[in-house]
Structure formats: structure tokens, C-alpha cells
Design a protein that fits this description.
The chain is an all-alpha fold. The protein is built from 7 helices and no strands. The longest helix has 21 residues.
């Protein structure tokens, strides 16, 4: 009989492969540094918007998964280059922005970085109030 549950390792592998295929971390580093995203940075697939967005949402999915597994340091390390701004890629999908802020804030809370938690929650509550 086939089980109806996904294996954690399979989900982790899929998310990590999507992130690597899209080169989203390199793209976020380039955005952080203020340089243009070229094919050398993004790669062949990263230049296509579908791969860029899939990689970005895979980062958020990985954040959620690590939080559910209780690995809060790893959860925060996978989104270290993500900018929590209203004009970022996350702003295109409000549910993604709310989810990412919630899980990042929760991870900060669990590792006792309360100031970062408050900052993230204030940001997302302000965003929700404006929209």
C-alpha cells in the first residue's frame, strides 16, 4: 500500500534542487550588492522569471520546513540574503510575504533574538495595515 505522506528528505531534496537550479541565492547576493543580474550570476535558468520565482518561493518553503523540524538556525541561514522589504519579490504575493515574515520571526523568537522578532512582526503588521 502506498503511503500518503511525503518523506522529509524527499521534500528537502526537491526544495534544495530548485534553489540551486534557479541560482536564487547568487541573484539575491547581487541585488544586495547593487549589481545587475546577468547570465553569469543567474545562470541559464535563473534568467527566466519562472525559475527565479520558483527558487525564491522554494527558499520560503525551506524556511517553513526547517521551522517545522525545529532547526531554527538553518531556517534563518537559508533566507540570509532575503530582503524583507515592501518592494521585494515577496511583495508580488502577499501570502508569501506574510508567511516568510511569520516563520522568520518565529525562528528568531525560538533562538531568543527578540528584537529581530519584534522588528519583523512590526514590519508585516504595518504592511497589512496599509493594504
Amino acid at each position: 500500500m502506498m503511503t500518503m505522506f511525503w518523506k522529509v528528505t524527499a521534500v528537502l531534496n526537491i526544495l534544495i534542487q530548485l534553489i540551486e537550479k534557479s541560482n536564487i541565492n547568487e541573484q539575491l547576493k547581487a541585488i544586495e550588492a547593487g549589481t545587475a543580474i546577468t547570465e553569469e550570476v543567474a545562470g541559464e535558468f535563473g534568467m527566466k522569471p519562472i525559475y527565479t520565482m520558483t527558487g525564491f518561493f522554494s527558499l520560503v518553503g525551506l524556511l517553513r520546513l526547517y521551522c517545522l523540524l525545529g532547526d531554527y538556525h538553518m531556517a534563518l541561514s537559508c533566507i540570509e540574503h532575503v530582503q524583507f522589504k515592501d518592494k521585494d519579490m515577496m511583495a508580488l504575493v502577499p501570502a508569501c510575504q506574510i508567511t516568510a515574515n511569520y516563520y522568520a520571526g518565529f525562528a528568531y523568537f525560538m533562538i531568543r533574538k527578540y528584537a529581530n522578532t519584534i522588528q519583523l512582526y512590526q514590519h508585516i503588521l504595518g504592511y497589512m495595515q496599509r493594504t
